[in-house]
Write a structure and sequence with these properties.
The chain is mainly α and 139 residues long. The chain has 2 domains: 102 residues, Arc Repressor Mutant, subunit A; 31 residues. It contains 6 helices and no strands.
Length: 139
């Protein structure tokens, strides 16, 4: 049976908020009045608590990514302007970032259709096995 967030206590929600906000378990315990051992037990054994913590963290990551994506174009323009202006430091960082200075060219991928087909089949089979394992473990 899947538990949901409504099954968490007010103390658990308080601890979740602190943990998601960057608090350590020790700090969360101190500020919430819940013992460290209880928080560790929730983190290890309380699946509803774990799920809500993951949901909250995923939501925060998604919001952060949306914010970054909304300004990524401007960031790329700034980098391009810096390079066009002759900024050697930015130019070198870009070259390092794409692996152009690593001594080995970045791998593009196979140029043989049969190899690509085989790699894709392996990836799909692996994904299918992973899905099936997750389904079996959820029962």
């Amino acid at each position: 049976m899947q538990q949901n967030a409504t099954e968490l206590s007010p103390q658990q929600f308080a601890v979740l908020e602190l943990l998601v906000g960057g608090a350590t378990v020790t700090d969360a315990a101190k500020h919430s009045g819940v013992s460290r051992s209880t928080i560790h037990r929730w983190l290890k054994n309380d699946f509803a608590f774990q799920a809500e913590l993951n949901r909250t963290r995923n939501g925060l990551q998604e919001a952060t990514l949306r914010t970054l994506l909304s300004v990524a174009h401007r960031a790329a323009q700034n980098v391009a302007e810096a390079i066009e202006g002759g900024d050697l430091s930015v130019s070198l960082k870009i070259l390092k970032g794409i692996g152009a200075l690593s001594g080995a060219p970045p791998r593009v991928g196979a140029d043989d259709a049969d190899v690509l087909r085989e790699e894709t089949e392996i990836d799909r089979a692996t994904e299918q096995v992973d899905r099936e394992m997750r389904r079996m473990l959820a029962l």
